[in-house]
Specification:
By secondary structure, this protein is an alpha+beta fold. It has one domain. 31% of the residues lie in helices and 16% in strands. It has seven helices and nine strands, in the order αββαββββαβααββαα. Strand 4 and strand 5 form a beta hairpin. Helix 4 packs across helix 5. It is globular. It starts with a helix and ends with a helix. The C terminus is likely disordered.
Length: 185
Amino acid sequence: MRANFEFALRSSTGDFVSVIGDDDGYLPAQFPALRSILEKHQPDCLYWDLPAYTWPAKGESGLVKLRRRSAFGLPKAIEADVFRENLLEARIEQTNSAPSVYHGVASRSCLERIACPDGTCFAGSIPDIYFSYRSLFAGGNMLRAAHPFSIAGQSNASNGAAHNRQKESDITWTCRVLVPPQVLV
């Protein structure tokens, strides 16, 4: 995943970058609203509440989850200090809705600020989580919108499904987070 994220970033142009997986999609007719928010607020990161589509399995039909409170809300600034405190206290369950470039948008300048000296932006084995944590420490104009611009696809083969498996032997990857040196002082 990390190599794919880096390749996509190096191949992209423009002021903002967004990443989704091959089983995900952007919702129809949402780009004008997304562009309007980006132009008006110039966020370092904008991310949104995410509906999920469960791909059919074993002859069952697919399922879409969309919450009423997660639709058509205006963007709001997040409390990055609270997220950082939770992260430093190892309360990572409370950082699940942290800024994201995966089903979110990051400004090119934000990506440059979080980059390692060699230019790598996604240095962890779970690149979207790595971005979330690094962006929290980098700070900036972080917004969250209660509006679905994209939809997450999930199946038994998805990374999210692997992450949520109960048996340790079923988990196929691990996460390594690099904390900026100034945080450790």
